[in-house]
Fold this protein.
Amino acid sequence: MKAIYVSLLAAAGVMSAGAVQAQDAEALAKSKNCFACHSIDKKVVGPAYKDVAKKYTAKDEPMLAAKVIKGGKGSWGEVPMPPNPSVTPEEANKLVKWILSLK
């Protein structure tokens, strides 16, 4: 019985850690002003994050993280994504992992 209890506690801890990490990533996106051009589930100026998650996979993470920092153009139309030099590579990776988790 004790082993089952410990296993359930460990599973709950892992699940809540994932939820906390998602909240942290969303808060990071808000703090970096990403939601000025993006939304989770609808197009604003840029694509919805759920649409990005549908289009790309984990193998695209390095390219997407670079676009977060350097900006980009052409992947989603004519409106360019401006560079975000205040976003560190670590933050860009965290944001991209969170966005891709929104499938």
In short: Residues 2-31 form the longest helix (30 residues).
